[in-house]
Each structure stands twice: as structure tokens, then as C-alpha cells.
Amino acid sequence: MTNHSFISLTTAAKRTSLSRSTLRNYSKQGKFPPLIAITEKRLGFLLADVEQWIQERIAAREAK
Q1: 50 lies in which domain range?
Q2: pLDDT digits (tens, 9 = 90+) for 8-63
Q3: Number of structural domains the chain divides into
């Protein structure tokens, strides 16, 4: 069974060094994983999705 963990927008911002507003905009534009409604008032991301996005950035840099 796969472990799916949520992380907050603030945690995702810290992990990526991008601002919360940039992550929201990127998510809306399809440049970052989609936000997930954890509760009615709480949004977050799947940790695995954020980690994959980071790995893709690293791979793109190494491909140059």
C-alpha cells in the first residue's frame, strides 16, 4: 500500500524555496501539482507530488 501524506502550502513553499502565492499561481497554471482540499478550510499538496516536481527540476538541470 502506498503512503500518501499531505503537506501544507507553507511546507511546500519551504521545500521548494518558492512563495506561497507563486505555488498557488503555478498550481492554477498546471506548472505545479494541484492543491487538494484537505478540509473545507485547509488546502495542501500530496508530498509525493511535490517531491516528484522537485526531482523533475533536478533532472532538467542535469540534462542541460
Answers
A1: 6-63
A2: 999 999 999 999 999 999 999 999 999 999 999 999 999 999 999 999 999 998 88
A3: 1
